[in-house]
Amino acid sequence: MATVETGPGRHPEWYAHATGDKFGKIADAPIGFGHMKRKEDARFIRGLGDYMDDVRLPGMLHGAILRSPYAHARINSIDTSAALAHPKVAAVIIAKDLETLGLAWMPTISYDTQAVLAGDKVRFHLQEVAFVIATDAYAAQDALQLIDVDYDVLPAIVNCRKALDPDAPLIRDDKVGQTDNLASPLWEAGDKANCDRVFAEADVVAKRTILDPRSHPCPMETCGMVADMNPATGQLNIYNGNQAPHAHRTVYAQVAGLPEQNIRILCNDIGGGFGNKVPVYPGYVCAIAGSIVAGAPVKWIEDRSENLASTGFARDYLMYSEMCSKGGKITGLRVDTIADHGAFDSTAQATKFPAGFFHIVTGSYDLQGAHCQVKAVYTNKAPGGVAYRCSFRITEAVYLVERMVDALAMEMNVDPVELRMRSFIRSDQFPYETQTGWVYDSGDYHKAMKLAMEIADYEGLRKEQQEKLARGEMMGIGIAFFTEGVGAGPRRHMDILGLAMNDGAELRVHPSGKAVVSLSAQTQGQGHETTFAQIVAEELGISPNEIMVRHGDTDKTPYGLGTYGSRSTPVSGGAVAVVSRKVRDKARQFAALMLETRAEDLAWEKGRWYVKGDPERGSTIESIAEYAYSASNLPEGLEGGLDANAVYDPPNLTYPFGAYIAVVDVDPGTGKVHMRRFIAVDDCGVRINPMVVEGQIHGGLVEGIGQALMEIISFDEQGNCLNASFMDYLLPTALECPEHGFELGETVTPCPHHPIGAKGVGESPCVGSPPAIANAVVDAMYHAKGVKHMDMPCFPARVWAAMNGREQPPQ
Amino acid sequence: MKLRLANPGHVIDINPIEPELNYIRQEGNEIRIGALTRHVNMLESDLLARTFPDIFREAEAVLADPVVRNRGTMGGSLCQSDPAEDLSGVVVALKGKAVLRGPGGAERVVEMDEFHIGPYMTAVGPTEMLIEVRFPIHPGFGGAHEKVERRAGDFAIVAASAALSIQGGTIQTAGVACSAVGPTTMHIKRAEEALVGKAPSEELFQQAGQMASADCSPNSDGRGPADYKRAVAGVLTQRALSRAAATALR
């Protein structure tokens, strides 16, 4: 194997690939943190995963949903008789049937209500209208075409700017007292008077209207469920890939009035979530109701079009923004936002924060004043507002602040990196309280920015840009520096539907010294089976290969709120570290008995308690485990066995950050953007498994490229969804990524309050990359043509329009 | 069919006759490609690369993705008659002729201008099938295919195919076609007429590009507004001709 210069963020396997020795040796599993192949990949890459659609139960029936062809229409009547006459149809359920079960409407996670099946009106294109249950999936589809629905079409609102016009049709006439399309009252953060004063004293003010367009998380596996209500026992088994199985169980108990102890949720492998599998969807309630009505298991698996057109979308924030400077530094930010929630408000957020964590909008800068306000409206579009690979609207906030810093730099005529360097929160200012009330735990922003510039050769890039400009070529360099707040959250501040945002862990070390750790967090592909085993390994000295990570079965795992908002390591990771330390403390008691000494005379080294001053005398965790379960006599107060439980309540969020630089070439003739380079320096504190971290960064950057360059859910004037297939909703491929790979770097600023100093990272790359790429495209157009703004997605026709001064915001 | 948009009464699998219809060969002054020749075969064919540099290879390299190219065929591309399809543009630019065979083995040969009669409509009759496409060979040949797409593997926003033969510093034959800017693959005849008999130059190719812009008839859709597509048709036509000429003179 050839010698390769090592650099930040590279690992042995990368080098093995880079040098052509792809079977190059990888170190065996580390006893603790370090590079390690993911334990779960052996089954995934061989196609041996076990997904929802793989569940086949005896006597199982198949459900399919009839959807509305209109965005807004009154339902006069629904005739199901022809469908019911189909020989393979077992039942047809419409709103009227659900009313008798009390299931016609369900609560959303934002304290709104959502129609399970439309009874009075349809309020978005492809809304759920009827549920057919048949003996096979084909017959269910055939029967959908036999249902006759009589509609009166109503005018539809798809533009959030027009939703509050006095003559706008009222979408939510089902809600008592609702007289307009306001979904939730104005919500504010920051001191407005102070912010206005800062603006009054400013030297330079930049203004932009910025749209973060509606996109979709698009997990590879769509949503679905197999509901199995046992009519004899009243036990309801639910096979459903979701990101928060325990919270879902509680919701089903509340919605359906079923005893919570009789509900068991089984998540097997999940083909991606990205926020799309946080909500409870109408199809789930239909499958459960269907199983109750039919007395048999009912499977409902949506197709790709249903996933894109009806399940939780992301973003759709229209932001009127101003940023100002004084003395060459950024001093203030104010933003007035319209949030488009669609027909039902099912935004994902913590209860106290109706705009999620959007008020982290001051970003990484030491500002004198900031104010943000958010107004949410209903439109005739699919409901959602889920946090697509994002901690509750932080993506929108980072997009806004990083676009605005570039806009301000243009108005000030300074380099965008220079303006950032002048305005960053300094490392000696942490913990730092922002103008909107966040307390950032730690950071060294200047260091990360400098490293990114070094990897990119920033000066060289600017020189190249000038040379190209002289030749009539367009090249852009885009910067984004993000700070996220992830790992919600402290129970004194945060809950969802009244449930504290904590997570549990249970650790059992067996007599042989092997262990099972059970989690409330739910993997969707993030590598939990490896990462969490490594945390236990680090704390107890057991090999990660001898630790099984159990999750996804509410009967066998402790309670907790699940995996989203980069919560896994910050919250569940904390729980696993704490529970491991509890077991370690208990092991110390046994070791004292075994070594015939006092517990306080023992010291710990990884995998072993030994006698202080006599390190030869010690007991390994393996021998302690054997002893703990043996028939030996135990003193009063010490129970046998080696296990423990923990519930972790994080004292604060964790605040990962990063410096990203995108380099693009833009074709002046066609508007095509070529993603040439992407430099990503991430600081997520201590890295448990650098290989998993890099995998997350690669994936998130690709998703960022998609959002910046091609992804949008758009609508025509009648409210028809125009992007309900992968032909129309484009996802990026390897060919849209920089051909020489992503250039990664890292700095490590450990989280001061997390048990192992880790911060979340799964979402960082998806949060930081869209503004970097958008800034790069605008940078190219600004230098060549003086263009100062365009909204994403930057696909060729839109870039061409922007460079010719004709850009329209996307609809 | 999966989306229940098409509901045919019968589906006939013609793969068993592939051995008879998967070929690329030279006969006299023609290249003949069988209707069941896979895209990957055309992409990798040395005969095509030698005879028509580099138009087939460029178009096939950006046509859909490897999975489609392994299964899709010449005949499938032409008979689908999707105006945004890449290979149809190449066939038009090369003045390919479609050989249709009917009952009893009766054959007729159809020019591409008569073959594509509208979006998703061809001259192939209900009892006929396309069996072969024939291309005239010209000395001093150079060709190119230019495509702008929203993402690799997507149908073209606009594509342009150019085929030139240049001898003695003069353009002898010219073929120009644009995809995704009209109801069928657009044959830009006015540009061809303007090119033949002239010495190749950027000014000439720019004029040809302007003719392509003027003569195509794009629609506004999710891939872009009509004015954008019209402008890009001109840009790509000029670029394709310029590269085709460079290849011819290589």
Automatic annotation (TrEMBL), chain A:
EC identifiers of the protein: 1.2.5.3
InterPro entries the record matches: Ald_Oxase/Xan_DH_a/b, Ald_Oxase/Xan_DH_a/b_sf, Ald_Oxase/xanthine_DH-like, AldOxase/xan_DH_MoCoBD1, AldOxase/xan_DH_MoCoBD2, AldOxase/xan_DH_Mopterin-bd_sf, CO_Mo_DH_lsu
Source organism, top-level taxon: Bacteria
Keywords associated with the record: Molybdenum, Oxidoreductase
Needed co-factor(s): Mo-molybdopterin cytosine dinucleotide
Gene3D superfamilies (alphabetical): Aldehyde oxidase/xanthine dehydrogenase, a/b hammerhead, Aldehyde oxidase/xanthine dehydrogenase, molybdopterin binding domain
Residue span, Aldehyde oxidase/xanthine dehydrogenase a/b hammerhead domain: 46-155
GO molecular function: anaerobic carbon-monoxide dehydrogenase activity; carbon-monoxide oxygenase activity; copper ion binding; iron ion binding; molybdenum ion binding
PANTHER family (alphabetical): ALDEHYDE OXIDASE 1-RELATED (PTHR11908:SF132), XANTHINE DEHYDROGENASE (PTHR11908)
Protein name: Aerobic carbon monoxide dehydrogenase (Quinone), large chain
Organism whose genome encodes this protein: uncultured Solirubrobacteraceae bacterium
